[in-house]
Amino acid sequence: WAGAVAARFGVPLRIVHALPSVGRNLTQTAAAFTAAMMSYQRDMADAFLKAAEQAVRDGQPELAVSTVSFNEPADQVLIDAGADARLVVLGGKTVTPAAALLLGSTALSVATRAACPVVAFRGDRLVPGDGPVVVGVDDSAAAQAALATAFEFADQFGLAVHAVRSLSLAAPAETGVTIPLLIDWDGVESAELAALTETVGGHNKRHPGVDAKCFIEPDSPGKALLKHVDDSGLVVVGSRGRNALAGVLLGSTSLNLLHHSPVPVIICRAAQGDSDE
Fold first, then answer.
1. Which of 5, 77, 122, 262 has its CA 20 to 30 A from that of 104?
2. Is pLDDT larger for residue 214 or for residue 271?
3. Are 241 and 112 in contact (CB under 8 A)?
């Protein structure tokens, strides 16, 4: 998937091997297991890299591909790599419960600290697919970065963009609103749709060939976005660069999407100087 994206954008691909990130205060048994795992990873690094490189070359024979191995934790290696990269891609086709904890932690660490967008790969497609690029939009600078990335991918791969905004106020039970009938929900939704359409339109002008649609969903941000993910080829969200995902998705729902989305998830940070914190 990363090779197909690199080829379409006309940039080289660098395949990186690094060691799993591990926590502190391990038990004696866990420490022994971790030491054995680290030794295995070091011993197999060349084999892993050669297999990955060959897989990419089979699909993209003209693509410039390089490989490199680091004897350092994967999250820090990928964060450093993101300083001069266009995109960092990590993940696998499936995520077991045990792997989700490790991969989720690594992906979250990289996504909230890397200078470039970060992809948590999911599924089995070797290209972004035929479905639309779904992007979550709120009022943050990170959402603007997510929109820019969504339109860039859609333009390159000939896909549509579906911009989704949560109308969470329409869920009184979640917000504590006790007199919802006194609120003009149709008016609120119309105003939100107009604002979203204007925001999306600014990006659409820079990519006029992209078919863009806007959706207002009366759900929490996570639920609103997950409604559109299954039929998509890619989902893009924003992160404000804290220790957990903020921006479009919040809390446990964002982590669930990161772990279990059936399609690749791109996590974008606001450009330096544009942060809304």
1. 5
2. 214
3. yes
- pLDDT computed for residue 239 by the predictor: 76
- Which pTM value belongs to this model? 0.80
Task: Report the C-alpha gap between 137 and 139 in whole angstroms.
Answer: 7
Q: For residues 179 and 151, give the distance between their C-alpha atoms in angstroms, rounded to a whole number.
A: 39
Per-residue tokens: 77: 């290696």
CB 132 within 8 A of CB 233: yes
Asked if 167 contacts 217 with a C-beta cutoff of 8 angstroms, the reply is yes
φ/ψ of residue 42, rounded to 5: -65, -45
> What tokens appear for 157 in the block?
């791969």
d(CA 209, CA 181): 42
pLDDT, the chain, mean: 78
Mean pLDDT of 232-236: 90
pLDDT at 100: 47
The tens digit of pLDDT for each residue in 176-193 reads 445 555 566 677 788 888
